[in-house]
Amino acid sequence: MAPPPTNHRPQLLSRGSWPEVRRIGDILRTETVGGVLLLSAAVLALVWANSPWSGAYRSLSELTIGPATLHLDLSLAQWAGDGLLAIFFFVAGLELKREFVAGDLREPRRAILPVAAALGGMALPALIFVAFNLRTGDGALTGWAIPIATDIAFALAVLGVINTNLPAAMRTFLLTLAVVDDLLAIMIIAVFYTGSLHFGPLLLALVPLALFGLLVQRRVRSWWLLLPLAVTTWALVHASGVHATVAGVALAFSVPVLRRKAGPGPGMAEHLEHRVRPVSAGVAVPVFAFFAAGVSVAGAGGLGATLTDSVALGVVVGLVAGKAAGVLGATWLVQRFTRARLAEGLAWWDMVGLSLLAGIGFTVSLLIGELAFGAGSERDDHSKIGVLLGSLLSALLATVVLRARNRHYQGVCALEERDSDADGVPDVYEGQTSRAICD
């Protein structure tokens, strides 16, 4: 075989393999529905918290259930943040491991872009928040991590509203970026937002975690065996003082991705993800949003007072400007200092739209705000309003840019559905057309 031309350059955001694109499409459909439910839950909470019946909302959020002897006498809001979000991070952990073990991102040339973009999209918003609050005092700097994460469900819901003519590589990039920075965010939570650490329960958590890992390595799929071990791991991690959502990531990383023997059917990670993702997108995240987003504007000092607060300003500017500049800047640096270039047919306006969309930092941002300032505190209320406003502005700006790009791709990607040999695989994935961007 002749060597490739010396001027050959790897392409950023090039089309992936057909199985991976088909899998991403299935995920998008689930997460898009989940995003609509998340948004509906957040709107309901906001309306209720600012209505004459706001007291009922607070009473519901503060309703305590669970055994006190196990340190699990938690309010419903705490159960949503500590318990249900562990399901969300379990799914995110499965997705990330699968991408890097068996997905298109197992190739370093494909993985470098979303990883670099995630790092850039986390660092710059954090720096912007620090700049706004450097001289504020009163513990404001503890919220530096609030604007660092991208909300998967909300961002993909916006893409679903825009339409589906955008290239699959763009949607895959956004999904992978969001998963990477959510996982980095949970590491930050574990390191920087752990108040007191109790090593006894943490060491004990390794026992059910190891048993869970042993069973899944042996491809045991019985829920009545796996679920009690997962819940026990979560409870012990919670008792240790480490945020309990870390248990979800640890459990996910123990799940094997590849099948033992070649053959039809999903692997263990794909099987569990298929089972748990609807629960995460349809129940866990919307319920958390319902309890986390219900901030009283009047209780926060009024909208005018909130918008002049350095915490809220740092969050809004960090999400809208910091995320966009961080993701876009990291992408430019990757192509500037490597031989990679954007795939043929893609434009930098596509990256601008995706970078703006990454500023939707809803779920994890709300969680970090509660951990940083304490649920129900004035600073937490200000940060929540900042998250809601910043995410809304990012969504609106991204929609303007990506709607224009979507109209462009409606004509360009007309070949997408063509399957001339009726084998179930579009021709663009079989080398029968040179079009590089259609999914």
Structure, explained:
The chain has one domain (35-60, 71-193, 243-410): Na+/H+ antiporter like fold (Up-down Bundle), CATH 1.20.1530.10. The model is unreliable at 1-7 and 432-437 (pLDDT under 50). It has helices spanning 18-49, 54-62, 76-101, 108-133, 152-162, 168-192, 199-217, 223-240, 245-253, 268-292, 303-307, 310-337, 348-357, 362-373, 378-412; strands at 11-12, 64-65, 74-75, 341-342. The radius of gyration is 22 Å and the shape is globular. The chain has a two-stranded parallel sheet. Strands 2-3 form a two-stranded antiparallel ribbon. The chain is an all-alpha fold and 439 residues long. It contains 15 helices and 4 strands. Helix 1 packs across helix 6, helix 3 crosses helix 6 (168-192) and helix 4 (108-133) packs antiparallel against helix 12. Helices cover 66% and strands 2% of the residues.
Which labels suit this protein?
439 residues, mainly alpha, Na+/H+ antiporter like fold, two-stranded parallel ribbon, two-stranded antiparallel sheet, 4 strands, disordered N terminus, disordered C terminus
What is the domain total for the residues? Answer: 1
Shape: globular
> Under CATH, the topology is which?
Na+/H+ antiporter like fold
Question: Structural class given helices, strands, pairing?
Answer: mainly alpha
- Order of strands across the biggest sheet? 1-4
Largest sheet: 2 strands, parallel
Number of helices: 15
How many beta-strand runs?
4
Order of helices and strands: EHHEEHHHHHHHHHHEHHH
The second-level CATH architecture is Up-down Bundle
The proportion of residues forming helix, as a percent range, comes to 55-70%
Our Rg estimate from Cα atoms comes to 22 Å
Q: What is the name of the CATH superfamily? A: Na+/H+ antiporter like domain
